[in-house]
From TrEMBL, chain A:
GO terms for molecular function: acetolactate synthase activity. It comes from Dyadobacter linearis. This is Acetolactate synthase small subunit. The gene is ilvH. Dimer of large and small chains. Residues 5-80 form the ACT domain.
From TrEMBL, chain B:
The gene is ilvB. It holds the Pfam family TPP_enzyme_M. Signal peptide: none annotated. This is Acetolactate synthase. It comes from the Bacteria. Its cofactor is Mg(2+); thiamine diphosphate. Residues 415-562 form the Thiamine pyrophosphate enzyme TPP-binding domain. Keywords: Amino-acid biosynthesis, Branched-chain amino acid biosynthesis, Magnesium, Metal-binding, Thiamine pyrophosphate, Transferase. It catalyses: 2 pyruvate + H(+) = (2S)-2-acetolactate + CO2. CDD domains: TPP_AHAS, TPP_PYR_POX_like. Belongs to the TPP enzyme family. InterPro entries: Acetolactate_synth_lsu, AHAS_TPP, DHS-like_NAD/FAD-binding_dom, THDP-binding, Thiamin_PyroP_enz_cen_dom, Thiamin_PyroP_enz_TPP-bd_dom, TPP-bd_CS, TPP_enz. It is an enzyme of class 2 (transferase).
Amino acid sequence: MTTYTICVFTENTIGILNKITTILTRRRINIDSLTVSETERKGISRFTIVIRHESREAVEKLVRQIRKVIEVLAVFGYLNDDIAYNEIALFKVSTPIGAKPIDIETINKVYKAWVVYWHLTYVIIQKTGTEKEIFEFFDYIKPHEILEFVRSGRVAVSKSPQTLVDYLPEAEWEYYQ
Amino acid sequence: MEFNENQTETVPVAETVAAVAKPELVNGSHAVIRSLIEEGVETIFGYPGGAIMPVYDAIYDYQDQIDHILVRHEQGAAHAAEGYARVSGKVGVCLVTSGPGATNLVTGIADAIIDSTPLVCVVGQVAAHLLGTDAFQETDVIGITIPITKWNYQITRADEIPEIMAKAFYIAKSGRPGPVLIDITKNAQNELMSREFTYKKCENLISYRPRLSPKVEQVEAAAKLINEAKKPFIFVGHGVRISHAENELLQFIEKTDIPAASTLLGLSSVSVDHPNYVGWLGMHGNYGTNVLTNQCDLIIAIGMRFDDRVTGDVNRYAKQAKVVHIEIDPAEIGKIVKADAPVVGDAKLALEMLLPLVKENSHKEWIAEFKKFDAIEDEKITQPELAPTTEKIKMAEVIRTLSNKTNGEAVVLADVGQHQMMTARYYQFKKPGSFITSGGLGTMGYALPAAFGAKVGAPDREVVAFIGDGCFQMTIQELGTIAQSGLPVKIIILNNNFLGMVRQWQQLFHQKRYSFVELQNPDFITIGKGFGIDGHTCSVREDLNASLDKMLASDKPYLLEVIVEKEENVFPMVPTGACVSDIRLE
């Protein structure tokens, strides 16, 4: 199984998520993670969909099917090497009175994670990184009892110098804000 | 008194009105109908109901500019619009209400997308403030139709209507055609537009840009393969008809002398009389076309998508051959069969570009190979089917007799099943745009409504529908539409009292365990008479000619029931999972 990151640029209208996911559902492809946000261009959304698949050919066919959705401007399929990517994770970690205190220095310096909220009996730690880095930190902090753990989906940009505008030169794009 | 004085001093009332006249504002419903008129729509196939009543009220005012045919079930509206679109090349339009009206369209929309048929379905919806409240006849029709439409959109304000309708028509008919659904909330139908109604046809969209003209490099690469091939083979698909490429195809065939076969929906694009026409491809196609698919050295596929009914086992399909694939939908390239030379673009433009690049050639010996297989098929299957010794009439002889009587030039519809395959085999199509059937979805009940849709689209042509007794009962109520509209559609029921194709499979692959395939049928002719449609039952061979003559002579709708052999099978046949060259003759 290879991880593929599919970046879909669409017009920002109601229901596009449904139009895209139905294409994956029909082909029994499970979504590992999904993020959606507006791009640097007004009215243009960017979907970052992470899937795992055995067949590159099947992923290429999937990309072509997604391109057929009328509101879709462009679709790119990437391997991990093609992109810079990251996720954010939040850990709610138990710190009851009398327990072994958490080692803030190690958390900051070794794991590049930050405490974003302090409570009497717990802290919330934010860790940014790849899936692998986040799970390394997960293993480190686990002995302190993780009360809650959440990961965002992957966000990714390609390492290619080309931008969306290079693929759609005739479109008149307005920068966001 | 003052009031009166003032009035006498001012300019006449009529002039005042003219001076400050604001443009007349129309409501959303009028905007819908005026948009349809702007798009050149002549006929709407529809059925009214609560959430679409404002639009129906508007149609009342435009009856001199636009026709409306009242179907008996919304599925009939969708298939009629498909029949109309398929025969005319124009966009078929349906108008229905929300909830069940919309869901009844679903089968027709699914049929249209898989057979690349342009439809615009205008659907009523509950008022915007009621969306999501489970209001009466509220259904999430946008959600339901996402996977089966080329595009869908919900309009909640009257002002959106002209632009969205223009977009709908552009998307439906351009590129690879398909169905578009526009859901319009009732408040948008009722409210006045805030500005004057103006209409501008849509000509392009940023996000949707179908490639019409293929890339020169792709065409050159295709021409090179074509010029080098010793045993090239052309596959004619539906795309040839859709892009009106029949003439260009003919020139291409004649210059290169390459044999050409057709898919189910490609039938009639090349006349059966043409010396290079070698027959039909696929599961019940011809012997030679299937066997030689696995012997040719180049496939030139034009506007077709290598459906599994064409390829059989794709792992043993034409592995020896290179493939030139001319196709407007890039997602079809390499979807099933790898293309050595893809040509993405409109078939007509691609053939125009290819023509000067391909060399004149002769493939007489190669074409003669097909004829050898034809001789075997003729002896083992075709002749026994056409001149049977059985007591009961066979489907093939009905179809061929009609073919001869109409000189192969009628618009022929077939429903789904054995009679469909028999129609494809035995009607001798000589005029392009003559065969309309549900290919991809295989929708039983398609032919009756599609037939009157086709008659609307081609009023000057003879329209004949072959329908099985099972299929007929799926949309039988559309006899009412035919009777009311008076459209002189000729309907032939090939009645074998069975769901014949399922029975055939049960016989061949399920040890004759006939599970729920025998039908107790009503008296179809009496039913027809009840609707006011004249008819006749033909049960003996001696009566066949006279029955068909009487049907063709009628200038009204006519229902002919032919009682045919109960347990006949369609052959040749490529069983599911077999490869095309393992086609069975018995």
